Amino acid sequence: MRVLVTGHHGYIGTVMVPVLQRAGHEVVGLDSDLFADCVHGPAPEEVPSLRVDLRDVQPQHLEGIGAVAHLAALSNDPVGDLEPEHTYDINHHASVRLAEVSKAAGVSRFLYSSSCSIYGASDSSALLDETAPLRPVTAYAESKVAVESELVALADETFTPVSLRNATAYGWSPRLRCDIVLNDLVAGAFLTGAITVLSDGTPWRPIVHIADISAAFAAALDAPRDAIHAEAINVGSAEDNHQVSGIAKIVADAVPSSELRITGETGSDPRSYRVDFTKLGERLPEFQPAWDARRGAKELYDAFQQHGLDEHAYRHTFKRLPTLLRLRDEGVVDSSLRRCD
């Protein structure tokens, strides 16, 4: 199948593209390239691509495309807090428009990268399946809920959308991010020898390696239509439901001579949820998670040793909010986060 991957120059997309290629698909990328220079280690191989803002996608961009893997978004809560109107414009309205244009162009399958963050402030005493109440507490999560609802309304006999609700991502990528919990803690420990948790460490988080996210998307491309049509599916594994303090202890084991500090200065994070991934195994039985947090922490530590990591890159290149602020200050993007070139 010819697959369009939006956000192919991003953290997950850079890993997903070769996974889909190995599965036999022809991949075309679409990206505004805001984070294309956030490279750690050797530059990844390129694929045919379009440098297009998600808000500007036209029908001709979807010609000959059989399926879309839609990853492109303004990611993480600090970015959403800074620019909530652009988060809604890009993550919600532009995503729905992409689905509408895809359907009109004859795309048969639309894989949407949603998030388990939509469960938000939930009761962490129970595992949450896809029927659990959605309690988003950020602009990022709210935009995901809105898109999921509108995708279901677009579904028909010719157009099959599926919302893949990824747990919080972790793992090394040639286009690295250090503003997600496991990656951030490993990077901090590598640079300073300290693993610092500012909350009380009690909130629960499901986490998932980006290679497993990519494998789940590959499985969804090949799955029978009835297994995924207009469905929402949590992506992760039961074993990778962790309290933040537990993630920090895993990092302490992976980074030699590191010291764990749980300060509690920011109190308890209201976002706490544990997730049930039973449906993933039922609907996508070909998918089997290959990673866990311990292996992922070691992978990151080994990558930092091999490719290096300095304080400036950690704080300013591999975190989304500082990168966007720098691009805006340098005139690379305007106030709406559109490229100026």
Q: Quick recap of the structure?
A:
The protein is α/β, with parallel strands linked by helices. 38% of the residues lie in helices and 18% in strands. The two termini are 33 Å apart.
Q: Which structural category do the helix and sheet elements fall into?
A: alpha/beta
Strand content: 15-25%
- The overall number of domains is 1
Give me the count of strands: 14
| Order of strands across the main sheet | 3-2-1-4-5-7-11
Task: Report the CATH C-level class.
Answer: Alpha Beta
Question: Alpha-carbon distance between the termini?
Answer: 33 Å
Roughly how much helix do the residues carry, as a percent range? 25-40%
Largest sheet: 7 strands, parallel
Q: Which of globular, elongated, flat, extended, rod-shaped describes the shape? A: globular
CATH hierarchy: architecture: 3-Layer(aba) Sandwich
Radius of gyration: 19 Å
* Number of helical regions: 12
Q: Which fold name fills CATH's third level, the topology?
A: Rossmann fold
Q: Could you name the CATH homologous superfamily?
A: NAD(P)-binding Rossmann-like Domain
User: From N to C, what is the helix and strand string?
Assistant: EHEEEHHEEHEEHEEHHEEHEEHHHH
Question: Average pLDDT, to the nearest integer?
Answer: 95
Low-confidence stretches: none
Descriptive labels:
Rossmann fold, 3-stranded mixed β-sheet, globular
Tell me the layout of helices and strands.
Layout: E1 2-6, H1 13-22, E2 26-31, E3 49-51, E4 67-70, H2 77-82, H3 84-104, E5 109-115, E6 127-128, H4 139-154, E7 160-166, E8 168-170, H5 181-192, E9 194-197, E10 204-209, H6 210-222, H7 225-228, E11 231-235, E12 241-243, H8 244-254, E13 259-262, E14 274-275, H9 278-283, H10 293-307, H11 311-317, H12 320-329
Parallel strand pairs: 1-2, 1-4, 2-3, 4-5, 5-7, 6-14, 7-11, 8-10, 9-13
Antiparallel strand pairs: 10-12
Helix pairs in contact: 1-6, 3-4, 5-8, 5-10, 8-10
